[in-house]
From TrEMBL:
Span list, region Disordered: 1-66
Record InterPro entries: Kinase-like_dom_sf, Prot_kinase_dom, Ser-Thr/Tyr_kinase_cat_dom
Domain of life (superkingdom): Eukaryota
Protein name in UniProt: Protein kinase domain-containing protein
Organism: Dipteronia sinensis
Protein kinase domain mapped to chain residues: 91-433
Ranges of Polar residues composition bias in the record: 1-14, 40-53
Comp. bias (Low complexity): 15-25, 54-66
Matches recorded under Pfam families: PK_Tyr_Ser-Thr
SUPFAM superfamilies, alphabetized: Protein kinase-like (PK-like) (SSF56112)
GO MF annotations, alphabetized: ATP binding; protein kinase activity
Amino acid sequence: MCKSKMSTKASEPVSTRPTRPTQSPRSRRTQQTHHDPNFSLPSTSTSGNYTLPSTTDSYTKASSSSASVSSRTSLSSLRQTISENPHIYSFSEIRSATNNFLLKKYSSSSNHCWRCNLRGRDVMIFQRKFRRKPESYNLRERLSVICRSHHNSIIKLLGASISDDYIYLVYEFINGANLSDCLRNSRNPDYTVLSTWMSRMQIATDLAHGLDYIHNNTGLNLNLVHNHIKSSSIVVTETSLNAKICHFGTAQLCGETDDDDNERNRKVSSFKRQSEITEIVEENDEQQPIPSSLMRSSSKKMQFEGVRGYMSPEFQATGIPTQKSDVYGLGVVMLELISGEEPLKYKFDKSLGEFVRTSVIDAARSALDGGEEGGGGGGERRLRKWVDRRMKDSFPVDVAVKLTRVAMGCVDEDPDKRPDMERVSRKISQLYLESKTWVDSMKIPTDISFSLGPR
């Protein structure tokens, strides 16, 4: 993330004099254009117990700084300065944009998501309930930090609004479809827009780079966790078929993460001693209905949100998300990319007279074990059979094996044995280059001419 000196100063609250500094006509027009008069903070009556400090001083300082260097101001630096300031939307703006929340939901899988126009921008608004209410100062700092983050593989958070126990997160709208729908089209199961090996390697590379940025490269000196890595939370852009990660910052702003690193590590290290959990499925749109006989409802010891198939063992035991649980979720998504299968499903076995659970992790392990034990043609056929048939058997087998092994390392039951995202990102980038070399070698040479006439 590139952060200019000007943008850093613009995000710090400062005291200003009552008198307005002298500004050039150009800088005055800039301030009037980007400082919305409706940029008001939620009052105590509309935002529960929260009264967030005003960011007007930040805007004033940004305008003063731009006035002093008006001769050197460019469009790129102006955009960078503006993007450093997150919007604190009033709750009345959220209600107006969503037609008092009567606007049609954007997705059938989510009951609290709307696509609408807010301050002249096409945005997505997500309603989330606080797990733990942070202090208003901490919430403002977190929002400022997250809104300053930029990456091509992450959907940008524009701002937020608060009302009672709920926070409304406003993200930029990206035209595309979620990865789950791209891989599994219920209307036409034999078709997928990701019909080539390179298209799936591009998705895997984008996801690895995006999650590596969240974990290691934001430059914010924070231990950020995503906590919502799943195929339905990944948008595949319509034209370029690139992947963008949704819900960045949700875990930090909603209080899903444990701020105490020592306490979090202590709970995760002892996860094997905890056995009773209650799972609350946040989304189940891409999975088959789970038989009631298989659902655990007797345990009331712990409640947390998660999606079956993506939750790591330690997360199921503690309910505490970590970077290693993010890695686990990414590993499951990569196995989905390779096979096209759901992460977890239940099938009724007539011979046993009961439902049998099948997971993409078990299927991948079986394919790899068969490849190693088969030693040659038999093992290769088994792996080819497991890889998504809609790619028409056109992929580099050796790269597919390596990518599957990387994914299986990410879903290791022991979190300490899982690689960090820096290593995963580096390995997947290498496999992308190997795949590109394979594709180039399979192309018909274009510098050869053919003649059907007699010599």
